[in-house]
Amino acid sequence: MTSFPSENRVYVGAYGYCLDRKGRLLLTRLAKGSGAGSWTLPGGGVLWGEDPDQALLREMEEETGLVDLEILSITAVYSHTYHQSPENPLPPLHHIGIIYHLETPVFKLRNEIEGSTDQCRWLTEKEARSLTLASLGKFAANLAWPSADV
């Protein structure tokens, strides 16, 4: 059995909130970990000493292939606490996500190979809400389509 430190942890990530010309939201599918198979925003952890803007651009390229991105603003800050449970045996974690509003002139995507995600797609509200969404994915869907009763 793997032993983890007992102290609580904080994880800071940078994520891209991007809609295409048709109003579809860009989401990625998690390939690994307890949320494998669920959909979320593209992005990920900010490395030690890394500027969150740079982390966002690095993660977007890794997970979607998009490189010609314009950061418009910080659109939201996501905060979720994961508690230890039989379903989640990992130590407690406070996930803080900086969500950047992005624009791109290129809408052609490339899936990540052997990474933390395995698919990326532009999804309509109906398509997104029919999938298993991670907590951050639900948060993003509610940003994109706030009138939905969720």
CATH C-level class: Alpha Beta
Number of helices: 3
Helix/strand-derived category reads alpha+beta
Name the average pLDDT.
Answer: 91
Task: Name the helix and strand elements from N-terminus to C-terminus, one letter apiece.
Answer: EEEEHEEEHH
Report how far the terminal alpha carbons are from each other.
38 Å
Second CATH tier, the architecture: Alpha-Beta Complex
Q: Quote the beta fraction.
A: 25-35%
Helix content: 10-25%
- Spans of at least 5 consecutive residues whose pLDDT stays below 50 are none
The overall number of domains is: 1
Written description of the protein model:
This protein has 150 residues and is α+β, with helices and mostly antiparallel strands. It has one domain: Nucleoside Triphosphate Pyrophosphohydrolase, CATH 3.90.79.10. It has 3 helices and 7 strands. A 4-stranded mixed sheet has the order 4-1-6-5, with helices on both faces. Strands 3-2-7 form a 3-stranded antiparallel sheet.
What's a concise summary of this model?
With 150 residues, the chain is α+β, with helices and mostly antiparallel strands. It has a single domain (9-143), classed as Nucleoside Triphosphate Pyrophosphohydrolase (Alpha-Beta Complex), CATH 3.90.79.10.
Topology:
Elements lengths: L8 E10 L6 E6 L8 E2 L2 E3 L6 H13 L5 E13 L10 E11 L13 E7 L1 H6 L4 H10 L6
Parallel strand pairs: 1-6
Antiparallel strand pairs: 1-4, 2-3, 2-7, 5-6
Give me some keywords for this one.
150 residues, alpha+beta, Nucleoside Triphosphate Pyrophosphohydrolase, four-stranded mixed beta sheet, 3 helices
